[in-house]
Model the fold of this input.
Amino acid sequence: MRNLADKTVGVLAVQGDFEQHIRQIKLVGANAREVKLPKDLAGLDALILPGGESTTMTLLIDRFNLREPLANFIRSKPVYGTCAGMILLSKRVLENQAKVQTFGAIDIDVVRNGYGRQLFSSVEEIQISLNGSLSSMAALFIRAPKVVRTGKEVRILAELDKHAVLVSEGKCLASNFHSELEGDTRLLEFFLSNFLPQTDDN
Ligand code: GLN
Done:
């Protein structure tokens, strides 16, 4: 794992389980910052959009004037979304759309709460392809969105029951499960070592 002492990772902190992400960022040796206002994005190396309620997050993003600054950040820097964060990064919400507004950064369509009772809240053992090798991971699903379409530029890094659960496109990574609630920091480390630029010139 590279030395992250000079990196600052923000977590959108308007709603949801941002504190768990903050804890994991510190665990891997990077600096963590809660993002509640546009000015909090200044100088961040990467951003995490946490799990929570994408409806409430949509509302608060607009209330705090974060939509445009977040859209700009997502276009230019690495962003990792978990669960509701994945919904916000997706292209479209096909069902249970409510008033959720997405950033369209990853070419996937999702159905909110798409597993219904089947995976209302459960831990599933999944196989993840990290840096070319398969590792198994206990993934916690909480009213997870179901990925029902993946565009051809999207890399599928893990699936469950033939649906993608971990995807990436460009500078963005997204999981429909929570990777931050336990002590397992492998996904965060994967994100930071593969998505942060190798040099410091951007
Ligand atoms: N069902 C939530 C939503 O639609 C996501 C759940 C989660 O983030 N754990 O936003």
